[in-house]
């Protein structure tokens, strides 16, 4: 192999000094055939117009031997045909959602060896990569328009709620045009939660985008028949109520809703990477709302406005789209009240006010609460439990029964689930005196004045000389704030006066209602 300098000398001697090929070979001590080859290459290159070809006129390239395309001895036509057959099997499996059972390249290589072919893994890998490269997907860049599309997806979040590690689902919406985001935490991904997330998102935005985009989640797609997909009844009802269209991504094509795919990871990291401990789910919800508001005030990476400002443009574009009343995302069932005065819904029991045992009532279950109806009237409301085999009790539902069975109060489930303030009152002042405690609860229920009763108890606790009784609490709760302030002074005279007034109040106290007249 000659050097680049010798090649240049050959061409200079031939073109400028008019030397023959033989003379050049003798002078440069080279083979005449080599001299002939480079002269002929130069003449051919000068005649070729390369302006429309993917090559350039390069005269400074060092001479190189031609690469010979040797015959492939291991990768024969038979082997290539067999590899393509196995690759086709993989493609068929992907089309029927069996992508986890595909053959990897190492599996294809082992199969070829089992069939008697002598071929290396590297050869198989290179051939498979070349074949797959022919089918590489091409992506089309989109330019969203204001108010047209919003994308929805779920993301998992693990938080410490009241000291316990819990796995929650975060519903995330992202407007394609503005990248404005909305998110909310849920304890499940059922239809009720999906609908509730949509209702709250639409209320927060103040308008209804024209198209909602989803992947093939089970709460949106009811079933597949061939290439056809059928929408669930719950999502049909929601879309008909708000008059929006539903667009479904192709299976395993998350890029078709790329805004929200990125938003799930982005919000989860920005919100909960720095803080993951909360006293309640409500506190976590409030914290998430504050983070979302901050993120939406950031500028868009392409447009010279914040996400919130761009969202307002979308709202103006879709003005008048939100005319319907809020959709009611709930499940309505009819249940029978059992002997414990509870109804069982999804493996959990919810207490019912006394007097309905054996009757059929209607239960309306929402994402965060459960309502109980009898003859069209709401008789009870509970916070919904998403666990199983849980008793959700309200102590006010059992007051009449407890007055007859006072000994059952101390170990009752309803007392253990009562508000912390009520349990503290019982444990401090009423253990062994359940009758007076229940009278106090009857009073707070009928007057709906638990907060006022707690204030009175706090004032009475300031004077250690005053004995705390139900009669005193009820009497003071009925008085005005001025009288209560005078009577709760710290001197002995006021304390004695308080005892005297309480005694008088007890004389006129109605045992039936627990109210001073």
Automatic annotation (TrEMBL):
Residues 140-315 form the Integrase catalytic domain. Gene3D superfamilies: Homeodomain-like, Ribonuclease H-like superfamily/Ribonuclease H. GO terms for biological process: DNA integration. GO terms for molecular function: nucleic acid binding. Pfam families: Mu-transpos_C_2. NCBIfam families: transpos_IS21. Belongs to the transposase IS21/IS408/IS1162 family. This is Transposase.
């Amino acid at each position: 192999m000659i050097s680049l300098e010798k090649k240049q000398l050959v061409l200079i001697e031939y073109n400028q000094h008019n030397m023959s090929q033989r003379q050049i070979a003798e002078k440069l001590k080279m083979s005449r055939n080599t001299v002939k080859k480079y002269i002929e290459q130069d003449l051919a290159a000068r005649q070729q117009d390369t302006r429309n070809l993917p090559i350039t006129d390069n005269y400074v390239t060092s001479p190189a031997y031609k690469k010979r395309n040797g015959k492939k001895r291991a990768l024969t036509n038979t082997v290539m045909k067999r590899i393509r057959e196995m690759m086709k099997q993989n493609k068929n499996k992907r089309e029927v959602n069996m992508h986890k059972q595909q053959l990897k390249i190492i599996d294809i290589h082992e199969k070829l060896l089992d069939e008697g072919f002598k071929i290396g893994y590297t050869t198989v890998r290179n051939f498979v990569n070349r074949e797959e490269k022919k089918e590489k997907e091409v992506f089309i860049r989109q330019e969203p328009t204001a108010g047209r599309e919003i994308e929805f997806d779920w993301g998992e979040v693990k938080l410490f709620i009241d000291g316990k590690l819990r796995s929650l689902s975060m519903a995330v919406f992202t407007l394609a045009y503005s990248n404005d985001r909305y998110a909310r935490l849920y304890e499940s991904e059922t239809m009720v939660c999906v609908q509730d997330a949509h209702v709250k998102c639409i209320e927060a935005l103040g308008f209804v985008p024209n198209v909602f985009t989803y992947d093939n989640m089970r709460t949106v797609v009811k079933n597949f028949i061939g290439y056809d997909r059928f929408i669930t009844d719950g999502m049909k009802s929601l879309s008909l109520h708000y008059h929006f269209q539903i667009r479904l991504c192709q299976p395993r094509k998350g890029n078709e809703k790329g805004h929200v795919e990125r938003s799930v990871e982005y919000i989860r990291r920005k919100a909960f990477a720095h803080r993951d401990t909360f006293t309640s789910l409500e506190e976590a919800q409030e914290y998430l709302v504050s983070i979302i508001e901050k993120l939406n005030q950031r500028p868009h990476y392409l447009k010279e406005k914040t996400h919130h400002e761009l969202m307002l443009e979308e709202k103006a574009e879709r003005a008048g789209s939100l005319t319907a009343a809020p959709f009611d995302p709930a499940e309505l069932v009819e249940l029978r009240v059992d002997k414990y005065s509870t109804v069982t819904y999804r493996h959990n029991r919810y207490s019912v006010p006394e007097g309905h045992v054996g009757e059929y009532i209607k239960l309306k279950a929402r994402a965060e609460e459960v309502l109980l109806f009898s003859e069209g009237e709401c008789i009870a409301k509970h916070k919904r439990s998403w666990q199983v085999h849980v008793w959700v009790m309200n102590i006010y539902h059992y007051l009449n029964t407890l007055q007859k069975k006072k000994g059952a109060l101390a170990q009752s489930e309803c007392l253990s689930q009562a508000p912390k303030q009520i349990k503290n009152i019982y444990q401090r002042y009423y253990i062994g005196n359940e009758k007076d405690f229940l009278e106090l609860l009857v009073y707070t229920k009928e007057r709906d004045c638990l907060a006022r009763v707690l204030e009175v108890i706090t004032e009475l606790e300031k004077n250690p000389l005053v004995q705390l009784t139900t009669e005193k609490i009820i009497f003071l709760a009925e008085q005005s704030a001025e009288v209560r302030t005078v009577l709760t002074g710290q001197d002995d005279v006021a304390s004695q006066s308080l005892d005297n007034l309480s005694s008088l109040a007890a004389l006129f106290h109605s045992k039936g209602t627990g109210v001073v007249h």
